[in-house]
Amino acid sequence: MNKVYKLHARLLKTGFHNHPLSLQHLLLSCVPAAPQSLTYARSLFAHIPSPDTFAYNTIIRAHAHSSPSHALSFFSKMRHHDVSSDKFTFPFVLTACARLQVGQELHSLIVKMGFDSDIYVQNSLIALYGCRGSVQHALKVFDEMLQRDLVSWSSMIGCFVNNGFDNEALALFQQMQIQEDMKPDYVTMISVISAVSRLGELELGRWVDTYIRRIGMELTVPLGTALIDMYSRCGSVDESIRVFNEMPVRNLLTWSAMINGLAVHGRSGEALKFFYKMKNSGLHPDNNTLTGVLVACSHGGLVEDGWRVFESIRNEYGMKPLLEHYGCMVDLLGRAGLLYEAYDFVERMPMKPNSVIWRSLLGACVSHNHVKLAEKVKQRIYVLDPYHDGDYVLLSNAYGGVGRWDEREVLRNSMREKRVSKKPGYSLINLDQVTHGFVSGDSSHSNQWRQENSYFQ
């Protein structure tokens, strides 16, 4: 904002502060200072006697990301006052629409005005449809483009990833490499890494990591953090540590990704060490970091450490523990066999426990063959979620574990009467960069293996 104020002061001194062109130049200087400059920008815009296309484009652009409703309001005024739109207007308006998840009907106006073949408008349409989950519409725009740039490919890949089409995203990235002679940017690679993470393709993840190094891409904080998360999700936490150590700069998200990765792989002591190193570096944990630390304590059976971290949420960081933090503590106490302590902890929670928390305790009761408490917990779950098949199966297993077969049969009959059916398990296995899926109970021949994806072979 200092640059904006200095420019305004200079215009006041020279007497040009009411000149329309000077006001437009001043308005343009507010764009990089958004959102702090938005109120100031609206005041300046109100002093322009007859705003033209450039002035409207500038004020819409300033508000598109931080205050999209204002951006659409200015576009409406622009249309109302018969100010012509141009090819620069619609990318800003479409950005605002994407933030609000509205505006699909704007496409017809774009076609009517003849801007549907402009590459910047087309890229913005892909982004809009991606935000709204309209993948087919986004793909139609992409396929009809006569010319594509890096943003076009990156937007379509991001659209696939953000809507769960990870296989298609990786196939499109491969197509981009074959058809286009262009170097991907950080946005593209982060989308690719996200797709690999969800698919759990370790070898493909290593290929992506090597590719990033081969093209000389700098290991920025977002890119490094994405790689840490990818390796963790793909089961190679040691490679997560390697990427972490190679990063020249790290932020809270980086530390949290590393702590969570260690936690879910049962390396609890290392997760705590990273947590204390993070604190010593001057960073304060957020809710996600603290959840990761509590998960580490739970998986490692570190009850005292868990209590210490949980109590520090309020006492040291001045934050209120979230439902997730309480759930981690219930899981920690349950795994450690402190079942009644866990039950009392749930009863004393300041917010209403959900079925997930009670279900965590039920699983612990079954693991420790505590049928009496398991029955009590099952009743609490029944009030919240009476038709969840897993609860019946857990209690049934508890009865079977202690030889109470009659009660087990009664429970199974109850499931049939309530039409609660057990969902079959679904498993994946990766062989030679091909992921196969199979369903529990499928006894067919090799046809039961279903190829999920295959890339870069």
UniProtKB/TrEMBL annotation:
- Keywords assigned by UniProt, alphabetized: Repeat
Q: What is this protein called?
A: Pentatricopeptide repeat-containing protein
Entry keyword annotation includes RNA-binding: no
| Listed GO biological process terms | RNA modification
PPR repeats: which residues? 118-152, 251-285
Under the heading Pfam families, the entry gives: E_motif, PPR, PPR_2
Q: Which GO terms describe its molecular function?
A: RNA binding
Organism of origin: Quercus lobata
| InterPro entries associated with the record | E_motif (IPR046848), PPR_At4g14850-like_plant (IPR046960), PPR_rpt (IPR002885), TPR-like_helical_dom_sf (IPR011990)
